[in-house]
Amino acid sequence: MKIQKIVLPIIALLLIVACSKDSTNTDNETPRVDKSANLRSLGASANDLLSDAKFTSLTIEIVYVTGFKPTDAAINNLKQFLQKHTYKPDGVNVNIRAVASSNLAPFSIEEIAKLEADERSIYNAGDEIAVFIYVADGSNENDEDGKVVLGSAFRNTSVVLYGKTLEKIASNSSSVSKSDVETAVLNHEFGHLFGLVNVGSPMQVDHLDPENAAHCNVNACLMASNIEFGSSIIDMVENRIPELDDLCVNDLVANGGR
């Protein structure tokens, strides 16, 4: 399984309650949610997220630790990004709620996966595909001076943001808002869920960064690795939120997106 991390400066591949179709063996058995479709490898649901061939709506479940709620602006910007690049005629919906701290920080990705298992309540159902985003109240266990993780796309419909680290990075600039940094990180991680770069959405033209797997070699692109390096993310969002380069967009269009 490939896992995407926002790592500074080193990258490692690391909704409304909806129920999946229930299955029971007897009438007395508690219905069980089929979670298997949401526990696949990164990029495995790229076409399902991008197109309306199987799923006509997208629901995002954001679970944040109290005190680390994403800004409304970042959530709205994410919805606009998804509407721009996906075909979901029945809409993009966001379900957001707070949970108590797990007191596990700093986190391993295995601990984040366990928290998802405990906290996630929405899975694919009918013509609705679901994505889970967990906003943690701490850092990644591999953080060190000059090298920190802001977020990770792991599995096919799972993302984590390290809220405390993200806030620290955003606070280092007086010209960039927290919502701008959150937007860049959220959009970047969704780009990985969409299969970029070459992790589920095949490249139409080679634009893979040879030194940073799953990233674009166009420096100004949202999927460029330099959005993940130290103060580079601040530099990149200072004038505008980075967007997908034409090469990345072409990959998405070829895999069912806009």
Give a short synopsis of this structure.
The protein is of the alpha/beta class.
Chain-wise SSE layout:
Layout: E1 3-8, H1 46-50, E2 57-65, H2 72-85, E3 92-99, H3 109-119, E4 128-136, E5 148-154, E6 158-162, H4 163-170, H5 178-193, H6 232-237, H7 246-254
Parallel strand pairs: 2-3, 2-4, 4-6
Antiparallel strand pairs: 1-5, 5-6
Helix pairs in contact: 2-5
Search tags:
258 residues; alpha/beta; Collagenase (Catalytic Domain); 6 strands
Structural account:
- The chain has 258 residues and is of the alpha/beta class.
- Residues 8-26 have low confidence and may be disordered.
- 27% of the residues lie in helices and 17% in strands.
- Helix 2 links the parallel strand 2 (57-65) and strand 3.
- The two termini are 27 Å apart.
Fraction of residues in helix:
25-40%
Distance between the termini: 27 Å
Number of H- or I-type helical stretches = 7
State the CATH superfamily name: Collagenase (Catalytic Domain)
Number of strands: 6
Number of structural domains: 1
> Hey, roughly how much beta strand do the residues contain?
15-25%
Named CATH topology = Collagenase (Catalytic Domain)
Question: Order of SSEs, N→C?
Answer: EHEHEHEEEHHHH
Please identify, by name, the CATH architecture. Answer: 3-Layer(aba) Sandwich
Label the overall shape.
Answer: globular
Order of neighbouring strands in the sheet with most strands: 1-5-6-4-2-3
Low-confidence stretches: 8-26
> What's the gyration radius in Å?
17 Å
Mean pLDDT: 88
